Amino acid sequence: xxxxxxxxxxxxxxxxDDISRWDLKPLYNDERAWDQNYDIMLKQGFNAVLRFRGxxxxxxxxxxxxxDAFFDFNQMLEKLYTYAHLLSxxxxxxxxxxxxxxxxxxxxxxxxxxxxxxxxxxxKMQNLEAKGKYARYLERILASRPHxxxxxxxxxxxxxxxxxxxxSLFSILNNVELKxxxxxxxxxxxYPLTLASFQNLVKSSDRTLRQxxxxxxxxxxxxxxxxxxxxxxxxxxxxxxxxxxxxFDSSMEAALFGNExxxxxxxxxxxxxxxxxxxxxxxxxxDWKGKILGLxxxxxxxxxxxxxxxxxxxxxxxxxxxLVLESIRPxxxxxxxxxxxxxxxxxxxxxxxxxxxxxxxxxxxxxKSYPYILMNFTGSIRDLFTLAHELGHSMHSYYSxxxxxxxxxxxxxxxxxxxxxxxxxxxxxxxxxKIQDPKIKKYFLxxxxxxxxxxxxxxxxxxxxxxxxxxxxxxxxxxTADYICGIFNDLYRKYYGxxxxxxxxxxxxxxxxxxxxxxxxxxxxxxxxxASLALHANLLKDPVEGKKRYLEFISxxxxxxxxxxxxxxxxxxxxxxxxxxxxxxxxxxxxQLDT
Length: 595
Fold this sequence. Notes:
Layout (H helix, E strand, L loop, with lengths): L30 H14 L2 H4 L9 H31 L4 H30 L10 H9 L7 H10 L5 H12 L5 E2 L5 E2 L3 H7 L5 H17 L1 H21 L5 H7 L5 H11 L2 H18 L6 H4 L13 H11 L5 H12 L4 E2 L11 E3 L7 E3 L6 H23 L2 H4 L3 H22 L3 H37 L6 H16 L26 H19 L1 H12 L7 H7 L7 H18 L2
Parallel strand pairs: 3-5
Antiparallel strand pairs: 1-2, 4-5
Helix pairs in contact: 3-4, 4-6, 7-10, 10-11, 10-20, 12-20, 12-25, 13-25, 15-17, 15-19, 17-19, 19-22, 20-21, 20-22, 20-25, 22-23, 22-25
């Protein structure tokens, strides 16, 4: 389906061509160059920083010089790691790639261990003022004083980080070793089932195919649920250990502290989404979904179903790129030109799924590299919006790297999800302007409602689960498979209402969410979408001021606290109304659909 005229075809449509994959040569010319650089860094060691040990308080110039050396080496490490992880994600099964990734991680760990004394020395400096080019960095260190240990203890903790492998184990199991039986439709036709193809198969109007896709995927996770439970339990125990030694009241507080997010922001999200009237609208949506699908009861796999499947919406890669570029025009010609160059000429993106490649999508890079994007493009509307989403991350990185010095260029995860979902909102707004056919418009109304459900309701449900799982361990409880699956089932009952069926395999979903290995991460999706809806409303209200505020926002990096950066953009995430307005938008969509 296309909403625009034909244009010159691009060349990178073959998923076997190198041109359809990201260009890593700006990082290193090849693996040999990486190996040589790694050997050099290993031999050099950390002497450039270590020579200042015990000297920081003796001369004010020593502090700045030591931080210069620290950030110079850290930037070289970041380059080393970025290449290794991108190379590995291109083929997870390649043992040489995995070895390089582990080497980079190990060197990072050694660097942390050998520079852990810096924080301790800085905290010992009497009457130290946070000023100069490292003022913001020093301000954050001084704020961490209540949670910082002595020098030797900090070194031990840094050395311990190399043993934190639960996320790697999950990644290998999830992306490489787990295999899924083919999904089968009502006519007996088989479809290869992968983590990527599941996203499309489960949307089919053929309920047998939906059920088969869900059952076969979740059954594979069910077979290893004890392993996955123990692995996740170890992650939660790791977090509990960290919060105890760092003197935090909870793992949540410890996780949010690094991004300077008050716990109240997390709790406000849960409280607002879980208000009776707001959950009632989600129950209405489930009931509508069942009604339009002709179902008395709605199973988990029915929630994915596309009720307007007769309206085929598929995109070539060229179409997807042009739509995304057109959608961001309100942000200015320069903004569009940068994005177009990255997507078409500079090869920021690894586009297609292939055996061994990491599933999903993300944006990644370092201060002086392209802001790379991993995709597994199949032409679906989901892929179209995923491209917009990841480009939002990459443009955020581009502008922050361009406008901030290295120590403040890396924005926090908290604000990252604002830029990405803002891009999605721009794309949706463009599509709704182009569409004239009422049936197609209804299709996109449903898509938008699903996007809010998946991003605000679903991620808040996940956030509630994480809170409960960690609270259990903090109160001396033990995480078992039955307990974990039970929490998930109870939350689904609460969120989705009486007409939603809790299938026996549903609880296993708690064990297959990769983001649970980045603890207390997912709530930021819900906050991010709420903030992006507010930013988009500001852009529509005043295009000139809205554009100016947005570009300032994505240029700010971590130069201020994230909640303050958003406040400067005229969005207050501490105010429940920011969340409520997003939920009101969901209600309006349900009203339009259920007519």
